[in-house]
Amino acid sequence: MLKFKKIESKSIENAIQQVLTEYSINEDELIYTIIDEGKSGILGMGSKPAAIEYLTKNDIVNDIIVFLTEILTKMDIDQVEVKGTFVNDRITLEINSNQNGLIIGKDGQTLQAIQFLISQIIRNHFPNQNLHIFVDVSGYRKDNNDKLIQYAIRIAHKVAKYKKDMDLRPMNSYQRRIIHEALMDDKFVTTESAGEGPDRHIVIKLK
Questions:
Q1: Could you tell me which of 136, 148, 140, 133 has the C-alpha nearest to residue 182?
Q2: Cα-trace Rg, the chain
Q3: pLDDT averaged over the chain?
Q4: In what helix (H) or strand (E) does residue 178 lie, and over which residues does it extend?
Q5: Domain boundaries 58-138, CATH class
Q6: Which pLDDT belongs to residue 124?
Q7: pLDDT tens digits, one per residue of 86-136
Q8: Fold held by 142-206
Q9: Which end of the chain is more exposed for a tag (fewer CB within 10 A), N or C?
Q10: Where are the domains of the chain?
């Protein structure tokens, strides 16, 4: 899916600088992997150039958009529009089509599967980069996340008020992570996952 480019130079620093100059970008807009550290040799003999494989963040977003559009087309979804951004370590993809419900699937399962697929591909390409993928369809996931966080906050307030642990309804791993992150800095409660399989859920506990 991702089409890496390669450049060789007398040092890693020089190779990176050449790319930054060519694309007129800052280093935080470049994702690269060192292929060869290179060596200077003796009096120029036995020297070996340093080499990196790289993509700009803009390249990565464009390649993912092409890949995602191809997937949706194979699902017989017409009039697909995919937009993307890559800010810091987060790649956000927003899909819009005339069949959004089909892309979302029951309880968001199809959308979750699409996000998981792209996340795995990115992880395989960049094993040393902690990149996060967020795929949404016309704001569906953002709205659901906001509702989920508000639900968790309400239960957390009850736990703090009545000083009694409370179990939330079963959720998938993505939903549980949203709640863990939402309450991780709460002064009064903590969260942990419990149960197995489809019964896996979060317990909000008093600290």
A1: 148
A2: 22
A3: 91
A4: helix 173-183
A5: alpha beta
A6: 87
A7: 998 899 999 999 899 999 998 888 998 999 999 999 888 888 888 889 999
A8: Ribosomal Protein S8; Chain: A, domain 1 (3.30.1370)
A9: C
A10: 5-56, 58-138, 142-206
State the Cα–Cα distance between residues 144 and 47, nearest whole angstrom.
57
Alpha carbons 151 and 155: distance in angstroms, whole number? 6
Rounded Cα distance, 87 and 66, in Å: 19
**pTM for this model (two decimals):** 0.74
| Two tokens, residue 91 | 């790649």
3-class state of residue 107 by DSSP: helix
41 φ, ψ to 5°? 75, -170
Cβ–Cβ under 8 Å, residues 13 and 24: no
- Cross-strand partners of 36: 51
pLDDT, tens only, 25-56: 999 999 988 899 887 766 666 678 899 999 99
